[in-house]
Design goal:
This protein has 565 residues and is mainly beta. Strand 9 and strand 10 form a beta hairpin.
């Protein structure tokens, strides 16, 4: 029986691979996937009579009138979308207010014309969950004044629905009433209920990206869960552009929850973590100078973690992690180069993507001491490095590194070093080869934390939180296929064939659960959400673990929503 199942599985994989290969060989070669107007999904080319940006900037042109054109979800002028159902959807949808878009603009009438400010405004608008796409284009030039048109396209943002996802052999469900463009003002209001492997929660949240039309943002969250409560508040003015001169933030968090530690996908012990955290911080910058932005950050951070037994568990932790209170002033820096490009069909389906090909380096150092209310004296260290490469022959490479640690009594504690590389190669118009390699190394990890590997973080053919250790490595290779199939003009369809390889090393807080190298293969369907702001890409995957690991199912069925392919 086992041999027969394995034989059927091999035949299924061979058949799927054969179909993918035959499609690649027989599909006629096409031109570039998007022209500029197709790529942005908003057709608004610069009028022929408008000079180049370089000419207008050299002439000292200023911004004249600003027209804001907010387009509805479905296009009445497109006969494929001009039907009763789609027009009813447009009618029921509250279109975004002009004030919500105006608050995101990085220019105003009378400013010196700066093409870079138009490009960055486009990027900022595309980050908004209620905007599908954006285009900012000069449409008229006369007498030293440039008239500018700002076009955005709305998506459906009201979510009165039920959610379901499955990964690592476990289900997560929820229902909520959420509007991420409340009354058209760009605010997010959420009332919901969710249930997953960790907890069941009732939640209330509010997020405002432009308080009273300003650059200030506000976020509030409350959750009443089966294992505790969460209260969170943040008010900030971020560095909203490369040329922003200052930032400020006040945040507060209280969170009590049950922490479960895992071995081979099973809970081995539990304890309660009661956390309280506050931060008051700010930053200053000279803005964008010679293509680079340099920022200096500073502030005060307080983080208390108390660990107590969980009264209802049959698996108490023995011993409990020691309590930890860190309180420290800090200074930091952020240096980044302005280098973005618009690309389509890479991490999304049918959306404009703003990819970063520059270099960014951030660092932070703080001193935790009893003078500031800390129980733990330590030197706090953190750093991040990003680098993007645009390579020949439709290839891109993105590198990322993170480091954090604290130094106590001359020794590093809770040291975590991460590194990752992501590679893309568009070897055919609609075919993209993707490979990602990531690794994590730790030293003296805090006992309340675990480095895990399983179906919920990279190994799709295995149960969630299956392996644990002190180091981790994961390699994923994925052949992505983008199609022109657009059923009911609601979702874009793609597919993927993938291989995952990974493992952990070392013995963590609950011992060594390293069964060796994990490997899986699989096929997946990708559904790109083009009409709503409720989640960008739905993944439906069938993954098969390789090898003869005892107790592992022959396949895993996964349904998840991600922000990328």
């Amino acid at each position: 029986m086992i041999a027969a199942i394995r034989g059927r599985r091999r035949r299924l994989l061979r058949c799927a691979a054969h179909c993918l290969l035959m499609t690649a060989l027989t599909e006629p070669a096409l031109a570039a996937k998007f022209t500029d107007t197709e790529h942005t999904r908003i057709e608004e080319p610069r009028p022929p009579g408008v000079p180049s940006d370089a000419v207008m900037e050299a002439d000292g042109a200023v911004v004249g009138s600003i027209q804001i054109d907010i387009r509805n979800i479905f296009d009445r002028d497109d006969p494929r979308e001009n039907n009763n159902l789609f027009m009813l959807t447009n009618h029921l949808h509250l279109r975004t207010k002009r004030g919500a878009i105006k608050a995101q603009l990085l220019f105003k009438s009378g400013d010196r014309y700066n093409a870079r400010a138009l490009e960055e405004t486009e990027r900022n608008l595309r980050k908004l969950v209620y905007v599908y796409d954006a285009r900012v284009v000069p449409v008229r030039y006369a007498d030293g004044r440039v008239d500018i048109k700002v076009i955005t396209k709305d998506v459906w943002t009201l979510n009165p629905g039920i959610s379901f996802s499955r990964a690592g052999g476990t289900n997560s469900t929820g229902y909520k009433l959420q509007d991420s463009n409340f009354l058209g003002w760009g605010k997010t209001l959420t009332i919901g209920h969710s249930s997953n492997v960790d907890r069941t929660s009732n939640m209330l949240g509010y997020s405002d990206p432009n308080v009273f039309g300003s650059r200030w943002t506000a976020d509030l969250a409350y959750a009443n869960s089966s294992d505790g409560h969460q209260h969170a508040l943040q008010i900030a003015q971020p560095f909203y552009s490369l040329d922003t001169r200052w930032s400020a933030k006040v945040s507060a968090l209280t969170f009590d929850r049950t922490v479960s530690r895992y071995n081979l996908g099973n809970i081995v012990d539990q304890f309660n973590n009661n956390q309280t955290a506050y931060e008051l911080s700010g930053g200053v910058s000279r803005g964008l100078v010679d293509g680079w932005t340099r920022r200096l950050m500073f502030g005060m951070h307080y983080d208390q973690n108390l660990f107590v037994p969980t009264p209802v568990t049959s698996l108490p932790a023995n011993p409990l992690p020691p309590d930890r209170t860190l309180s420290y002033p800090f200074v930091g820096f952020d240096i980044l180069k302005d280098n973005y490009q618009k690309i389509g069909d890479q991490n999304q389906i049918g959306r404009t993507e703003d990819l970063y090909f520059g270099t960014e380096v951030t660092g932070q150092v703080g001193l935790s001491n009893g003078v500031f209310g800390a129980r733990t004296n330590a030197l706090m260290l953190a750093a991040t490095v990003l680098r993007g490469f645009d390579l020949p022959y439709e290839q891109q490479l993105f590198l990322n590194g993170d480091f954090s640690s604290r130094v106590e009594d001359g020794r590093a504690r809770n040291l975590i070093a991460d590194g990752s590389a992501k590679y893309y190669w568009r070897w055919r118009t609609d075919w993209l080869l993707y490979a990602a390699l990531s690794g994590t190394v730790t030293d003296s990890l805090d006992p309340d934390k675990q480095l895990l590997l399983g179906g919920d973080n990279g190994m799709r053919g295995y149960p969630l939180r299956y392996e644990s250790g002190t180091s981790r490595g994961i390699l994923t290779v994925e052949q992505r296929v983008f199609t022109d199939w657009y059923p009911f003009r609601l979702v874009r369809v793609g597919a993927a064939a993938f291989v995952d390889v990974g493992r952990t090393w070392g013995s963590g807080a609950v011992g060594n659960s390293d069964p060796g190298l994990l490997r899986d293969v699989g096929l997946g369907l990708r559904l790109g959400n083009t009409r709503t702001g409720l989640g960008n890409v739905v993944h439906v995957d069938l993954a098969f673990p390789l090898g003869n690991t005892v107790g592992i199912q022959k396949f895993q069925f996964l349904v998840q929503t991600f922000q990328s392919f």
